[in-house]
Amino acid sequence: MILDSSPARGNLGRSAVESSLDVVSSWVYSMQGTGEFSDSLERLMSLIKADAAILVRVEDGKHKRIAIVDSQTRKLFSPRDRPSVASSIFSDEISLARSGTVWLHSETNDHVEIGDPDLNAKFKEFSVRDVAVVTLEATCRSSYYLEFHFSSLFLEHNRVVLLTLSGTLSRTWKDRSIGAARAIELSTRVTIELAADRSKTANILATDNPFGLSRCEFRVCLLIREGFTAKRVAKELNIKESTVRTHLSSIFAKAEVSGHIELLHRLSKGRGSGPLRRSGTN
After folding, report:
1. What fold, for 3-194?
2. What phi and psi, each to the nearest 5 degrees, are found at residue 132?
3. Is 32:176 a contact under the CB 8 Å cutoff?
4. 36-57 pLDDT, tens per residue?
5. Which single residue of 13, 61, 63, 270 has CA 20 to 30 Å from 211?
6. Residue 93: which H helix or E strand, with range?
7. How many CB atoms lie within 10 A of CB 45?
8. In the chain, domain spans
9. What are the respective helix, strand and coil percentages of the chain, to the nearest 5?
């Protein structure tokens, strides 16, 4: 794993420069407490083509996720929260790096491979191919860094953009208003609690697809609601029964239900509370 402290190379086009200024402006406002932190992260993710961004605080050797913005949900700290793996990939050196430093996993590896099987499974679930980290602040008491996930290798052009911005992101983070980091953490905690409450009552088949079901998972739920067994679902959809059970396992996890009986109960409760649809995430 390497520390990339080289200066940004290459020239940014006019469009990239304008977008970068927009990102910096949004970031500064959020650091001053007059803008939404999740909005500034979304803008930064869009600029460098990242699929997710995670703010992590390191204290007493423990890496704690303070906020997560996922491009799939556009929400602060998605209920389907991604793991932070920077410490597993880059070891404890990540918390000791100079502020503004950028770390890039693909500099030495062409895929994410972590010793923890559970984390590897999680990364496969989210199709993570590359990881970049920007150290925002490093002190003897605590450190903060941004961790970005990519579904493809981090392109050189976007890497130049991130390197160009990293110093500004770090400086403005260190000059943030008093209580800004705490406010982000509290906002995240409230979001988690509200999401947990909604997940217990939300209609799994609602039109806004609250649990991010794929099209196939949505169809499986429709049939399960009608009393179909896994075998009948497989026959109806012309797929293997083992595939149906894989879909069910994913549905259980996304909807946070314990099994088939609870799923059927939730689906039955949601009947008639929203129009049926067959669209969903791929």
Report:
1. Beta-Lactamase (3.30.450)
2. -125, 145
3. yes
4. 888 888 899 999 999 989 999 8
5. 63
6. none
7. 21
8. 3-194, 202-269
9. 50, 15, 35
* Phi–psi pair at 150, nearest 5 degrees: -130, 140
**CB burial readout 189-222, b (16+ within 10 A) else e:** eebbeebeeebeebbbbeeebbbbbbebbbbbbb
CA 40 to chain centre: 15
- Global pTM reads 0.64
Find residue 233's DSSP bridge partners: none
Degrees to nearest 5, angle at CA 103 with 31 and 88: 100
Sheet of 75-76: strand order equals: 3-4, 102-104, 130-138, 142-150, 52-59, 62-70, 75-76
Per-residue pLDDT, 191? 57
Give Cβ neighbours of residue 242 (< 8 Å, ≥ 6 apart): none
Residue 170 C-beta-side C-alpha neighbours within 13 Å:
21
pLDDT tens readout for residues 238-251: 999 999 999 999 89
Question: What is the 3-state secondary structure of 182-250?
Answer: HHHHHHHHHHHHHHHHHHHHCCCCCCCCCCCCEHHHHHHHHHHHCCCCHHHHHHHHCCCHHHHHHHHHH
Task: Quickly name the fold that domain 202-269 has.
Answer: Arc Repressor Mutant, subunit A (1.10.10)
What pLDDT does residue 266 have?
A: 86
CB 150 within 8 A of CB 130: yes
Residue 237 has pLDDT above 90, yes or no: yes
